[in-house]
Specification:
Length: 183
């Protein structure tokens, strides 16, 4: 009985370490353009540490890079935002996470092409992925896909979360110091 208890206690930290290792392997595959392998590594990371938001988002990115169907990619990206702790945001610079900015543009172009003929739920799925790619590309400014997604679904929590990321950062004004009185 004691051996079983010791094994269970050791399994928790070991699984977390293995999850981190698979996540790092996935990042390596993502940076080299091996999207199927990256998705598999991120999925394995989630098996070892279920419910994590960041590996889920990266699995969605790898899914998009791999060219999988829009519904699966959109599901993973939305699930990542659902898994985020309250008052947290997921800000990535995909130009740094992928091999090059050209790879990111190629992936986004694929979803723009799919968006042309999409209707109903398929349109929302394509907008979900495209908005994520446009907001997370590291450049400030608006996303046409996000604007359309917000117009189609004004109360969508995912669109609202991406909208907060797309907003320019506000500069905080420092209060003026009162001049010191001379004695």
């Amino acid at each position: 009985m004691r051996k079983a208890l010791v094994m269970l206690l050791l399994a928790g930290p070991l699984a977390a370490d293995e999850a981190d290792e698979y996540f790092e392997i996935g990042l390596g595959y993502l940076k080299t353009g091996f999207y199927a392998e990256a998705r598999a590594a991120f999925s394995e990371s989630l098996v070892r540490a279920p419910g994590q938001a960041v590996p889920t988002a990266f699995a969605g990115i790898a899914c998009a890079g791999e060219g999988r169907d829009s519904r699966t990619c959109a599901y993973l990206l939305r699930l990542a935002y659902q898994r985020l702790p309250a008052k947290r945001s997921l800000r990535l610079d995909l130009n740094k996470q992928l091999r090059s900015a050209r790879d990111l543009e190629r992936i986004a172009a694929r979803f723009r092409q799919r968006l042309k003929d999409a209707r109903g739920a398929a349109r929302v799925d394509n907008l979900t992925v495209l908005a994520f790619l446009e907001v997370q590309d590291g450049t400030p400014g608006g996303s046409k896909a996000l604007a359309e997604l917000q117009k189609l679904r004004p109360n969508d929590a995912y669109a609202k979360a991406l909208g907060r990321l797309a907003e320019p950062k506000k500069k905080v004004k420092e209060p003026k110091k009162a001049p010191k009185a001379k004695s």
